[in-house]
Amino acid sequence: MTPVEAGMLGQVALLAAAVAAALLVPARWRSRVGGILCTLLAAAGVVTGVIALSGGQGSLTIPAALPMDPLVLSPDRLGGLVMVVVSAVGVLASLFGIGSARVASASRTAWASMAVFLFGMQLVPAATDVVSFLLLWEIMTLGSTALLLAHHATRGTVASALVWYSAMSQLSFFFVLAGFAVLAGATGDTGFAALATLDPASWQAGLAFVLLLLGFGGKAELVPLHVWVPRVLPEAPGHVAAAMSGAMVNIGVYGALLVCVRLLPNGPAWWGVLIMVLGGVSALYGILQASVASNLKVLLAYSTTENMGLVFLGLGASVLLRRDHATGAADAALLAALLLMVSHAAFKATLFLGAGAVARSTREMNLDRLGGLGGRMPWTAGAFGAAALGAAALPVTSGFVAEWMLLQALVHGSRVGGEVVSVTASVAMPLAVAVIALTAGLALLTFVKAYGIAFLARPRSEKAKQAREVPLIMRIPLVIGAILVIGLGLLPGPLAEALASAVGPAFTPDVRTIGLAGVDARGIDVVLDPATVVAIAALVLVPVLAAILVSARRHPTRVSPLPWAGGGSRLRPRMQYTATSYAEPLVRVFDDVLRPTRDVEVTHVGESRYLVERVHVEQSVSDVIETRFYRPVLGLAQRFGILARRAQNGSIHRYLSYSFVALLVVLIVVSL
Amino acid sequence: MFDTVYPQLIGLCTGALLLTSALLVWRHSLLASIRLLSVQGFALAALVAVIGLEEGEAEVIIVSVLVLLVKGMALPWVLAHETRATTRTDEAPRLNPTAGLLTVALLTILSYVVASRLLSGDTSISAHAAPIGLAMVLIGFLLLVTRRQAGSQLIGFLVLDNGIATVAFLTSGGVPLFLELGISLDVLLVVVILYVFAGRMRNKFGNTDIDQLRKLHD
Questions:
Q1: How far is CA A409 from CA A126, A176, A321, A439, in A?
Q2: Are A219 and A259 in contact (CB under 8 A)?
Q3: 3-class DSSP state for residue B175?
Q4: Dmax of chain A from CA atoms?
Q5: Distances from the Cα of B128 to the Cα of B19, B117, B134, angstroms
Q6: Burial classification of residue B149, based on how many CB atoms lie within 10 Å of its CB (0-12 exposed, 13-18 middle, 19 or more buried)
Q7: Which of A645, A650, A671 lies nearest to residue B114, judging by beta carbons?
Q8: Which residues cross the membrane (chain A) (predicted)?
Q9: How far is B65 from chain A (nearest CA, A)?
Q10: How far apart are CA A322 and CA A311, in angstroms?
Q11: With the C-alpha atoms ordered A598, A603, A607, A608, is the resulting torsion angle positive or negative?
């Protein structure tokens, strides 16, 4: 038995143990036992994934009762990489869950489905044929649905969110199924190795590509299949949201990679353009919605759409550039997409866990009512801050490395050796750079808002004032997540090399580790060594700062009784900036896209027209795609449903007549 | 001697079956329908007996006695007993008698057409008569679709069952004794259950018009 096989068997055994423990252990100990077993399950996934990523082989064969080939699970390097990423997020989420799961989210169903969800997610990348892929995909979806169901008894909004989630999951499952069916129909087999023999230029490959892209895009929360995200994630407990938004979206990315790297590499140029358009629109739309959201979890949810959009943008650029023989830039773009996937998993998991910690301490997710948590919850604030830096793609975080690599690939992509590679590329690359620039700017604004409003300044409500730091078991995953975000950003070299090996043997991006674990992308001749830069900066800055501090000590501190604030001190917390007021200029600029609804209610003092007693302002931003696209479609479906009700009116006679007519029709057809 | 009479006997029995089925569509009175059903049961039993005599198998003769007891006597008795015990409401079907008989004619033609395709290779006398069974199935179904009262529905169901039995006897020379025993008891049980159900319906709504049961859908 090889280590990979042992790892996968271990995951199966731990799944059984975790489900049994969730069902049998009494409520008092359930979260601890269930959480530890889920952590072990995810840790087994990390180990298996690392072995598979470093080239370990091994397969698990599950004989199927159906008349078909047995299911074979055998992760390749790419599968191993995704398994590591999702399992690592699973470890953090499970650890956090030990401390955070309470009442409904610590129920039998919740812990059992958490284990099922993790298991499905970890083994999807190991599938080597369509049937086992779809089977594990559905296990993952069902597990996550049951997890979300935990809170349905206490909150009315959960039910409608779940309906959206189930419908959208099934929609993306349908697309994936249809796409694989087209491929399997064209090649006559369901194994991935056989599917890869199809010519990417054939019309079947094109049709399958579009269907699979839509299906996987739905799981990766891309526009226009993202509508479930802002509804579902705010309803989920912190650790579940972290597992869904940090890990499950990567399965969508894995699906897209499977198509573009493994099954149908070297696709036509329009594939790349299509992926880039989908990714670019998602990135812009996601970050715009995130920047004006005032619910912390909604903000993070939309930010996932943005990041996944960037991942797909990189993937699309790599497909397009490879077609145009700009191999160096194409490899760099693919590498950037992978880097972004890994870094997004790290910072988004940490951010959602941070939001979970805030929710646990304050029971409040509206940024307009938070504030001042920095001093009250220093660990959470530190971890959230580090992850927010990553999400805003600022230096020394993994997010920065990823976006830097993406920009470098795009900048170097339109020309090879001074020659324009193609008209499409020379139009698409600058546009993509513009999209990323705008996205990066808005992301910075968004996360300044998220961190600044929630953790800095004074508390805006009583709940925020009474916040306490979360227990140790919840702080550990937060800190690990923050260390990962910074660590991967400081030492990107080894990570980039591992990622480059993962897409082999089809593609072989030429990256090396340089300097202090910096990254050297030789294909496009760019070098980034954050650790060295930081070290040099430290060498310069430490003496300077020391000198400043020493000289500052000599002068006495002047205490001003009245800080400058338009002539008065800011006594009341309500006079501070809120999330809504901070985003106000943005809402005005992007009024046409966001279409906010504002409601201003002015109460006058007595009969006076000039003296105002109270002003009540309410602003809400709805999802344009939901109101303009899904609602009309749903309305149409409902009208058909009402028509169908006439045929299905409950009368026994009518049902009998249907059977009778059906029988007669069959008989007539037989006798013709 | 018997061989010359055999086709005529088969024709007589199946003719009686078809005639009773057609009359069931025509008559509206519940008690008259039950009497017709009883006649149909006797005709079916006679058909089975004729087939048994032709094949010379004692088991088939026993089955014919069983059919006589269950379909000719027990079922009509149960139906009549229940109907007499309660207030009698005559059927107001959705199809008037003329249209009903016309439909019966069309269904019979259809079943002959279908059977000629399905049994084209089989030239035996019993196979020639098999379309009658199919026609009875269709007529039973027609009764189910057009009748409003639960009692009449039950009669339609029994005609359908008789049709299936007729096809089975004519095409395969009868079913094994145990199978027939099981089927007969099953039908008897179903009839009893449906009658209890109809009684409860009457208590609840005051009649057994199944058009009232419209709230079954969500």
A1: 30, 29, 10, 17
A2: no
A3: coil
A4: 109
A5: 17, 12, 12
A6: buried
A7: A671
A8: 6-25, 37-58, 78-98, 110-127, 133-150, 162-186, 206-228, 240-264, 270-288, 300-321, 333-358, 379-407, 427-451, 472-491, 531-552, 655-671
A9: 32
A10: 17
A11: negative
Q: Write out residues 135-154 of B within 8 Å (CB-CB) of A.
A: 138, 141-142, 144-146, 148
Strand partners, A597: A620
The CA angle A402-A53-A253, to the nearest 5 degrees, is: 50
Interface of B with A in 82-101 (CB under 8 A): 94
The span from the CA of A372 to the CA of A462, in Å, is 11
3 state DSSP class of A188: coil
The domain locations on chain A are 341-551, 625-671
Quick one: which of B166, A4, A658 has its CA closest to B158? B166
Number of helices followed by number of strands (H, E) in chain B: 8, 0
Q: Which of A147, A151, A214 is nearest to A178 (CA)?
A: A214
Whole-complex ipTM? 0.84
* CB of B176 closer than 8 Å to CB of B132: no
Question: What are the DSSP calls for A114-152, one per residue?
Answer: HHHHHHHHHHGGGB-BHHHHHHHHHHHHHHHHHHHHTTT
* Amino acid residing at B74: A
Residues in chain B: 218
The DSSP call for residue A191 is: B
- Which chain B residues are closer than 8 Å to A668 by Cβ? 110, 114
Q: How far is the C-alpha of A92 from the C-alpha of A350, rounded, in Å?
A: 8
Residues B154-205: tens digit of each pLDDT = 888 889 988 988 888 887 766 677 777 787 788 888 888 877 777 777 777 7
